[in-house]
Amino acid sequence: MSSSAVSEAPAEFAASSATFLHAKPLAAIFTGALIVAFFGLVPLLGNDYWLGAILIPFLIMSLAGLGLNITMGYAGQASLGTGAFMAVGAYATYNVLLRLPELPLPVSLLAGGLIAGLVGVIVGLPSLRIKGFYLVATTLAAQFFLEWMFNQYGWFSNYSTSTSISAPRLVLFGQDLNTPVGRYLLTLTTVSVVALVAWKLVRSQTGRSWMAIRDMDTAAAIVGIPVAQGKLSAFFIGALICGLAGALWAFAYLGTVDARSFNLDRSFQVMFIVIIGGLGSLIGNVLGAAFITLLPILIDHVADRLFGGAIDAGQLENFQKVLFGALIIWFLIKEPHGLAALLGRLLRRLQAIASR
Amino acid sequence: MSFFVETLVGGLLAGVMYSLVAIGFVLIYKASGVFNFAQGAMVLCAALTFVTLTENGLSFWLAFLVSLAIMIMIGIAVERLVLRPLVNQPQITLFMATLGLSFVIEGLSQIIMGASVHELDLGILDVPVEFGPIQLSQFDLVAAATAGLLVAVLSLLFSKTRIGISLRAIADDPQAALSVGIRLQVLMRIVWGVAGFVALVAGLLWGARQGVQFSLTFVVLKALPVLIIGGFTSIAGAIVGGLIVGAGDSLAEIYLGPLLGGSVSTWFAYVLAVVFLLARPAGLFGERAIERV
Amino acid sequence: MSLRKPWQAVALAVFALSLTASQPAPAQEAKNQYVPLATYRVGAYASSGIPVWAGAIDYFRYVNEVEGGINGVKLFWDECETNWDVEKGVECYERVKAGKDGSPVPIFLPHGDPISKALTEKSVADKIPLVTLAYGRTETIDGRVFPYSFPVVFSFWSEASSVINFIAEKQGGKDKLKGLKIVTLYHDSPYGKETQTPLAHLAKTYGFEDIQVPVPHPGNDQSAQWAKIRQLKPDWVFLRGWGVMTPVAIKTAAKVGFPVDRVIGGIWSGSEEDVRPAGAVAKGYLAITPFPAGADFEIHKKLKEHILDKGLSDLKDLKSFGSVYYNSGVNEAIITVEAIRTAQKKFGARPINGEEAQWGLENLNLDDARLQEIGAVGLQQPLKLSIKDHEGGGAGKVLQWDGAKWNVASDGWVRSDRELLLPLIYERAAAYAKEKGITLRSEAVN
Fold first, then answer.
1. Does residue B58 lie in a domain region?
2. Is this model's pTM higher than 0.80 or not?
């Protein structure tokens, strides 16, 4: 029976993302095409619904997935406090925007992220003593406590009657970003920049020590890797990124938000993204987010098309829920290393065909 | 003072109700190493099945037996279709699979039995009877007795019978256990069946308290800190953890709530659990894992 | 895992996506009026929602089948599942807001307090009125600041005030409120906190003691709260619950020996779905509602004859016909239909868009004569909206559960002290306008 849990994340995960990197020329073309498509074509072609209700939440959830993947996929410290970190990011950014209006938007966002990162370090402290599933359980305390705190104390929401917060302004270089396209581009830019930084980071010394801690922390300590520092830095960076995601969720997506938007379900969703996408893989977050946020909407649209009106609406909804749950189980069974591993295999195969 | 005692007793009795749910988690964790989040969905499914059957004219015991049979079948199906294919996967993957499973069970239950709320009357009075300074209801006593009985029977099952000894052998060293001829799959089915039984008992008692409806699945959230405090592998720990959480929540809500603004019981049990974990990283009664480098 | 199978799945998904993306573009003039319904048929609150849409859909069908639509414009609708979840609600709103088959969206019914709050600003940008019957932010009553939010009929502030006035009725006059101890047991959420301000104000005005006791979500254990109430020994308990919190509160009240006929439920604690799970101990429990239960109203006779008996009803469980939530759906549909009808008077008998429906709502006048024609006397209170007043009614009936059904326990509609509270509401709306930099609409655009 496996007793220590998450810290055992098999080294294969690292291998699968490495495979993906071996397909470098292809990956570069792929990435380039993606950038052109997402920055150029999508804003031109997308309507309010696609931008506002599908792409923005999808991108933000990929970002949250990236944050958790740093903590969990790279450093092996599983956490169900993601929702709380997102909430801290959202409320902190709100308060910075409100109380220091002279700061430009990117600085306010980063400040919100940094505060979330610091909270992440505090939440990560038990990881120095507790491991595996019990550690996951301790992060739940943060999840429930912070959600309660933002709901309870009016100061955080500037004493708004509904304890919800809404962006005072979204202005960058004199441009009003409060249009669907503006909010989309803000989100996409943030996600791209963070992903680039994360990509550099996981390949640095820090990233390597994270992976050593993940694979076997006792051994890492023996060979002189500063384990405590590594664990806490992973919590810091992970929570910082989740905080950015939370701020975007509040201001670029919903426009107004209260702490319940960052409840335990959100934490579960992000955990799904990381596991289904692939632990220790950056591209996996995007794939996982597509699975978790886009698939239910897709199922809903298809079901409406095919059966709308013909089947009792309640039964249809329940059926969709069953289908989504079953698909999750099916994917975990069939591809336990996540969609990233699958993509890696596909690229390898394409490369093999190309080099033939 | 008497108010303090009353709050404390009320909390302890509420805690017993959490323990009932927590026991189901412990059973499955002991046998399969899975933190089975779908336990809440199983509680809902069991109660919904039972109440649908009685509303269609079945007697209490017949409905109980049929529901039990269905729960055992679900348990076996889950073991066969979800857990066996996922064997040797990291614990967190298994956990996420049980989350997916909870969607499936909740959805199927509601497809088959509908989304309405039902009253569940077990015929046990839930009105106060004064015992000196404290108030108890007949229902409280039945719930406490049921929990006590479950713990006693399950502890015996795990310590004295062949099944229990085999289970412990598997937990210690699966390879060795298999090689001496322990039939893992039969054992797993038995444990999942027993977990189904526990879910049914918890579903009936919770259903009688709050009605049979979807929110039965929320009881999981209170069972979690119970498990953390008691340890994932100890049945006795589930009871002790339940009592601590129940009493802690009630006292915190009364005495801490007014200072902090109320609703502190949403997080109090979890923070308490962290404090316990920092002192004992595997819960009060949990087994400490030994790591080999 | 073989590579082929998952990619087949992906290909299938892409195909399905292209299927949904290629919406047929109808250029022709639409003849029918589209009304989107945001519903929650799965999740924790499905049981309370299902009768609501049944009531609304049955009334829409009745308008189509028997009256031939609204001045000949037939209604059509589709559902979008929100799970009562903000994000899904926003997705639904974005999905439907462009209209369907050429018909614009006249009114959006968010069906969920948090969703309505999240849509407050979006709806202004899109010019689509949000009609929130007996929920939503109270200060959106002020249409000068919130042009597209319509907390019609019975806001949470009116709810609180009517409950106090009902207590006064029972005690024998408002002067008897002095010295009473009234506990509000509330769901600890923005919805639950909404009545704190008006109750504090009313307590100051009438001299009763206002004690607020929160219940954390979901509220499936309330032993601590009721131990406290037992110690406080209040004269009345005002129960503002949601979902499982209500039956647990009633059960726990009985368990600590608090008389349930001194517990008055709020709007969302007063349905059959709330009391049935509590069983026999719920007998005597009171609740205030703007949509009283009953299947004997004139409109119900027509619905029964033309819809239920012909098997056209959306109800799966016919015993919910005439239940509180079914009737709330009927009420909601009546307001929707009458707002469209009013707008048609100005803009012509054709599908109405959001901006026109806003005019229709702000000029809605459901007087006794019109209610008589609809057959909704007693079911719906007389309602007159204006730019300054997006609520219009402000009264509720108090029902009492007799173990099998609800009976009216109050002396007809219990009015709230709107004249006392409105200045406060306008003050808060003005503060919001200042914070957001909103310039007030003039009242005289009509």
1. yes
2. yes
Nearest CA in chain B to C40: B115
Weakest-pLDDT range from A303-317, B137-151, C60-74, C124-138: A303-317
Q: Which residue of B has its CA nearest to C43?
A: B214
CA distance B287 to chain A (A): 10
* Pick among B119, B215, B219 to test the C interface (most C CBs inside 10 A): B215
Q: What is the pLDDT along chain C (446 residues), one digit of tens a residue?
A: 444 455 555 555 555 555 454 444 444 567 899 999 999 988 888 888 999 999 999 999 999 999 999 999 999 998 888 988 888 899 899 989 988 888 999 999 999 888 998 898 889 989 999 999 999 889 999 999 999 999 999 999 999 999 999 999 999 988 899 999 999 999 988 889 889 999 999 999 999 999 999 999 888 889 889 989 988 999 999 999 998 999 999 999 998 889 999 999 999 999 999 999 998 899 999 999 999 999 999 999 999 999 999 999 999 888 899 999 999 999 999 999 999 999 999 999 999 999 999 999 999 999 999 999 999 999 999 999 999 999 998 999 999 999 999 999 998 899 999 999 999 999 999 988 888 888 888 875 54
Count CB pairs under 8 A between chains A and B.
153
Q: Kind and range of the H or E element at C76?
A: strand C75-81
**Type of residue at B44:** L
Most A CBs within 10 Å, among B104, B113, B175, B256, to test the A interface: B104
pLDDT, tens only, B71-108: 999 988 998 899 889 888 888 889 999 999 999 999 99
What ipTM was assigned to the predicted interfaces of this complex? 0.91
Task: Tell me which residue has tokens 């409840």.
Answer: A263
What structural domains does chain C harbor? 33-154+294-384 (3.40.50.2300), 156-289+398-418 (3.40.50.2300)
Q: Where are the extended beta strands (E) located within chain A?
A: 165-166, 171-172, 175-176, 256-257
First to last CA, chain B: 54
Of C43, C217, C254, the CB nearest to B127: C254
Domain region containing B191? 2-216
Which among B116, B123, B154, B150 has a CA at the least distance from the CA of B139?
Answer: B123
**d(Cα C191, Cα B142) in Å, to the nearest integer?**
36
Calpha distance A349→B57 (Å, rounded)? 61
CA atoms of A131 and C144, how far apart (whole Å): 57
Phi-psi sector, A310: left (phi>0), alpha (psi -120 to 50), beta: alpha
Q: Residues 266-305, chain A: which have Cβ within 8 Å of B?
A: 268, 271-272, 275-276
Q: Which of A298, A321, A342 sits opposite C42 (nearest CB)?
A: A321
- Establish if B169 belongs to a structural domain: yes
- Chain A residues lying within 8 Å of C17, measured CB to CB: 298
Residues in chain B with CB shorter than 8 Å from the CB of C271 are none
Interface test with C, best of B48, B130, B213, B217 (most C CBs within 10 A): B213
Contact B82 A329 (CB under 8 A): yes
In sequence order, the β-bridge partners of residue A200 are none
Q: With contacts defined as CB-CB under 8 Å, which chain B residues touch A300?
A: none
Q: How many angstroms away from the CA of A312 is the closest CA of chain B?
A: 10
Nearest chain A CA: its distance from C94 CA (Å): 5
**CATH architecture, range A6-354:** Orthogonal Bundle (1.10)
- Residue B163 included in any domain: yes
Contacts 24+ apart (CB under 8 A), C362-367: C362/C143, C362/C386, C362/C387, C362/C390, C362/C446, C363/C446, C364/C335, C364/C338, C364/C339, C364/C392, C366/C334, C366/C335, C366/C338
Within a domain: residue B269? no
pLDDT of residue A241: 97
Q: Do A48 and C6 touch (CB under 8 A)?
A: no
